[in-house]
Amino acid sequence: ATVIPNEMSDFIQIGPFCVGETIPSLPTTSTNGINGTWSPASIDNTNTTTYTFTPDAGLCATATDMTVVITQPTIPDFTQIPNSCAGTEITLPTISNNGITGSWSPIFDSNNTTTYTFMPDAGLCATATDMTVVIIPTQPPTFNQIGPFCVGETIPSLPTTSNNGINGTWSPTSMDNTNTTLYTFSQNGGACIE
Question: How do 184-187 and 7-8 pair as beta strands?
Fold first, then answer.
């Protein structure tokens, strides 16, 4: 009697795939011409699964396994853009802190608070993510006009907080009770002043 050794079924490894990605059917003929079936028969695109190929009856071939790896998508990580004054031009990054490339939609609006969506480039196992950039409207500090005053009259100090809550300083810093003088208010920071 002639004994034929069992041949190993040979397949090209597929994957890895991202969760939910379409996975092609596993071939029913090995690269070395052995026909058979896979178990489980249906492809699971949500979990890493080991599939076993069983050669058709009557073939001198052994079963073989293939593990198809399913990876969870990466969530792009970005440093939050701080609240910004209206008119501040900001460039949203096209590479996340964890190396995902992509683009933002809609285009940046420097005058309105907007939620932007980052779409990873095709072929990356990554999810879309959102970032809201808060735009603070600009406002002028408002003050009640003081005066007029007579030459030599005592002039009260100018307030360091505007009627609408903006803190700052005046220039010049000292009051001149001998000449009409224009005083300029400079904010201390925090508010967006026109």
Answer: unpaired
How is residue 91 written in tokens?
A: 């460039």
Distance of alpha carbon 71 from alpha carbon 46, whole angstroms: 8
Return the DSSP state at 126: B
pLDDT digits (tens, 9 = 90+) for 74-84: 999 999 999 99
Can you give the three-state secondary structure of 128-170, one letter per residue? CEEEEECEECCECCCCCCCCCCCCCCCCCCCCCECCCCCEEEE
Closest CA to 162 of 183, 178, 147: 183
* SS3 annotation, 10-51: CCCCCCCEECCCCCCCCCCECCCCCEEEEECCCCCCCCCEEE
How far apart CA 106 and CA 83 sit, in angstroms, is 18
Per-residue pLDDT of 20-29, as tens digits, reads 999 999 999 9
How, if at all, do strands 114-120 and 102-105 pair? antiparallel
